[in-house]
Amino acid sequence: MADVGGVAADHLRSYIERIERLEEEKKGLADDIKEIFAEAKGTGFDVKAMRAILRLRKMDKADYQEQEYMIDLYKHALGMLDVAPDTSAEEEAETAAF
Q: Which pLDDT value is given to residue 95?
């Protein structure tokens, strides 16, 4: 392995090339995902809603419940919801965390 100024050049080159290959794969996957969204949109699906669902599916159940509770609470405070949110969902989220 060649050292240049105290840096193992071959080792560094290996890391850089591996990262470059992964970046290429990542771009290819991003392009594939973009095509799937375009296909879904073409058949009438709402892509924004699909993206929101994907974000929610990644969340922990307790975090999801807490977020939904807070959104409902804020909607109620702004007059966007007629009834106050069910506090049992917030209590469940708190107890699930312990």
A: 53
